[in-house]
Amino acid sequence: MKTKVFAHKSLLCLFLTLGIILPSSVLAKGAKGAKGKGLTVLITGANRGLGLEMCKQFAADGYTVIGTARKPEKATELKTTGATIVKLDVTSELDIAAMAKTLKGQKIDILINNAGYFGPNLMTEKMDNLNTLTREEMTRCISVNTLGPLFVTQALLPNLRLSKSPKVINISTRSAILAAGSGGHAYGYRVSKTALNMVTRTMAGDKSMQGFMVASIAPGHNKTHMGTHFGNLKPADSMKKVKELIESLTPKHHGGFWFYDGTRRPW
To answer: Could you tell me which CATH number the domain at 34-259 has?
Structure first.
C-alpha cells in the first residue's frame, strides 16, 4: 500500500513539474483511493436528494456510477458527479426496456432502487387522510414505490448476473413498519413501501436470484425535497452510512430490513 501511495505522489510531482494540470476528479480519486475500482453501481432517482448524494459518494470512491433521471437534460448536478446518466421513469415500460437495451452487456454490481414518490403535500400538515385520498394517488404511489423497483430489477437481472456478488437494495422507510402504529395519513406512501418490503422478502427467496444479496434500507428522515426542512438528518451524513452498510452486507443481512445506521428494523 505504501508503495502505491508513493508512486502516486511521484507521478503527481512529475505532472506538476511538467506543468500538466490534472482534473480535480483525478486528484480526488488518487487522494481517496479507489475502493470501488472495477465495481459498478446503478442508482435510480439520482437527479436530486438521496440518490444524488449516493452518486457523489460512490463516484468519489472510484465506483463506476450510473444514475437515472426522468429528465436527464435537467440533471445538471448529477452530470458533475461524472455518472453516466440514463433516462428512466420507473413507471414506464418503454423507459425500462430502453434502459435495458442501452445497458446490455454492462455489468452491474449494486442496484439501488431509490426512486420514490411521497405524495402531493410532501410532509406538510395537510397530508392526505381518508377524506381526501384518491384512487389515482394510491395507484401512483404503488406504481413508483412498489412496481418500479420490482420491474427495474427484473429488467437488469442479466446485468446483475455478470457480477460475482450482485446486490439489490430497495430504499424503504420506517413508515412502512406494521408494528410502528398508525399515522392516520400518507396512505399511498406507507402502503406502497410496506409492499416494497414484501418485494424484498420475496426476492430474497427467489431461486432465479440465487447468489444475490437483497435488502431493504430505511435512510432516515433527511432534509431533502421529499423530506423537507422537517428532516433531522443531512444526506451527506446518512448516505455515508448507507454506503458503508451496502458495502459491508453479509449473508445475515440478506432479506432483511435495516436502518441507515446498521440496526435491524422489524417488518
So the answer is: 3.40.50.720
SS3 for the chain is CHHHHHHHHHHHHHHHHCCCCCCHHHHHHHHHCCCCCCCEEEECCCCCHHHHHHHHHHHHCCCEEEEEECCHHHCHHHHCCCCEEEECCCCCHHHHHHHHHHCCCCCCCEEEECCCCCCCCCCCCCCCCCCCCCHHHHHHHHHHHHHHHHHHHHHCHHHHCCCCCCEEEEECCHHHCHHHCCCCCCHHHHHHHHHHHHHHHHHHCCHHHCCCEEEEEECCCECCCCCCCCCCECHHHHHHHHHHHHHCCCHHHCCEEEECCCCECCC
pTM for this one? Answer: 0.83
Q: How does pLDDT run along the chain (267 residues), one tens digit per residue?
A: 444 444 444 444 444 344 444 444 443 444 455 788 899 999 999 999 999 999 999 999 999 999 999 999 999 999 999 999 999 999 999 999 999 999 999 999 999 999 999 876 545 556 667 888 899 999 999 999 999 999 999 999 999 999 999 999 999 998 898 987 667 678 899 999 999 999 999 999 999 999 999 999 998 664 555 555 555 578 798 799 999 999 999 999 999 999 999 999 999
